[in-house]
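#struct-queue
[09:14] JT: dropping the first one here, sequence first, then the structure tokens:
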Amino acid sequence: MNVLKSLDLQNEIQDVGFFCDNMVFRNNKEKIIAEVNTNQDKSHYGSDGLIIKRGLFQKFLREKVISNNIQIEWNKKLESIKTDNDVVAKFKDNSDAKGDLLIGCDGLHSKTRQIIFPDAPLPKYTGVVLAGGISKNQSKTPTNQLTFRFGSKVYLNYFVTSDREAMWGAHMKIKQDLLSDLTSVSSETWKQKILDKFSDDSSYVSEFIENASNLTKLPLYDIESLPSWYKGSVCLVGDSAHTTTPHAGQGASLALESALTLARCLRDTSDTEDAFSKYQSQRKPRVEKMIALARRQGEMFTATNPIKKWFRNSVLSMMIKKNSQMFDEIYDYKVDW
């Protein structure tokens, strides 16, 4: 939100999303074990938190790009990069594009990263699949409240909008050799798999799963660290440089921060490679700290060991109060544009 504020887009994006009033952590019997009030976020961090569908956010950004007369080409697949005087990106349809520099913001399985750093560490599967969807008419659930629910066998988070639409995701431990089931098994079968995981818990959350019109299934990966984010006049940004799991809620935020930082370094530094070097040195420590935080929280939230689950549920409230500095590290960061 603070990045969008720097771009004078904060007020417009508020019309597309929903404000989050508070965050609640519940056990499998619906008992509240911890709570985080977000009413002071604006005064503490400069902006309120916003919950938004990723597709609507991408649409919002795309429309802003187009309105600024920036061209978008669709259905292009990168095949190779040549860096002589200019950078030339060649695509599988035999077309190409030339420029002074190339920014690879092509995500988790970045082709740009594979080309410029063929020996770079590969994204590492965390052992967790996020299966989620959108469900209508959730009349029993408080609205504008982000809930983290630790079930007996699986962890679920959900947010119900003021329009009574639930956005939810179940974080399920799935062995890597079973990932082929994500595409080969029907959504209805997957729904039943998730419902079975909640069979020992209170029943009303099952409505989320039963009423979902569409099911998304995403294996969660991260990259702990890349030795470098740039080579010559080619540079990585976003998930292509710093893939993280969603357990700290910072994937999109880190990408926005990095994009603004990279833009500032290119604006203020005449030499492209020097600009890339400054961008990397300013961003790498933060993103690697957030990647490690997300991994630790993911391991805690998805714990299946009874002792680890008991410990988490018993001390979570105390940990949140004690670690208020952790929230400051996440949310108080600002790019000096």
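[09:21] JT: and here's the second one, same format:
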Amino acid sequence: MKSNLSEKILNDLRVELLEEFDRNFERKAFFTKPWPARKHGRKGSLLLVKGGGGLRGSLKATAGESAITFTSSLPYAAIHNEGGKITVTAKMKRFFWAKYYEAQGGITFNIKKRAMANTRKNKALTEDAEFYKSMALMKTGSQITMPERRFIGHAPEVDQAVKRVIDANFNEIETMLKDLLKQPKI
């Protein structure tokens, strides 16, 4: 049977660590270790762009009998967190062609000059289109290496958070005991 103290500590840890892991997305780093930069397209973090921001919101934590379990319902969470290799499939190639045509469709033209308008949006779309085209032209079965962009896991900062939560809980108990002992006896 779990005591109220261990239940409270685990719940406090669940909240604290989930907040810390969420802050990794703001830091664009695993605590103090920055994520690798994107190799294509627009500036910014790959995990925070449109569609990628869902990863941050997908993190859930559950306190059990003696542990806290962190999960994500998104299938690509593990490959982003741990890095690894992805095998290019025919379905992926179709997706990249669709993204290529989507990016190309957003480009605006200057009718008078009969050329693509010289805007930041067009330049970014062109970079995206080139990336998607290069991905679509990869051979089925070839490998894409995904760098590790850890956002959840063990680190010295996690140990520090655990110590803070446990210390705070024991300090609260100590204060309660002192107050209890100060009460006049009847």
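[09:30] RK: nice, looked through the second one.
[09:31] RK: The first strand starts at residue 29 and ends at 30.
[09:31] JT: good to know. Residues 1-83+147-186 form one domain.
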